[in-house]
Design the sequence.
């Protein structure tokens, strides 16, 4: 079936880009939380821990995708 490989590559690229965007959003939220208030109350600390756990899960999922499936030149 022509185009099957291209679909798989596109699917990998889309999934990887979605995960990178989600990680970037979490990094941005964490950075804003860190600069907003140095003396974080317990609720903020718990929320920060949740965001860090979410980020770790997304990073693991991105790693599990493996390397880019496109053939490299050279």
Sequence:
């Amino acid at each position: 079936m022509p185009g099957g490989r291209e679909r798989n590559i596109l699917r990998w690229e889309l999934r990887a880009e979605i995960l990178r965007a989600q990680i970037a959003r979490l990094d941005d939220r964490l950075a804003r939380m860190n600069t907003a208030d140095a003396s974080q109350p317990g609720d903020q600390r718990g929320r920060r821990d949740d965001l860090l756990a979410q980020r770790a899960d997304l990073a693991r999922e991105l790693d599990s995708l493996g390397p880019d499936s496109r053939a490299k030149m050279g």
Observations:
- The chain has a mean pLDDT of 84.
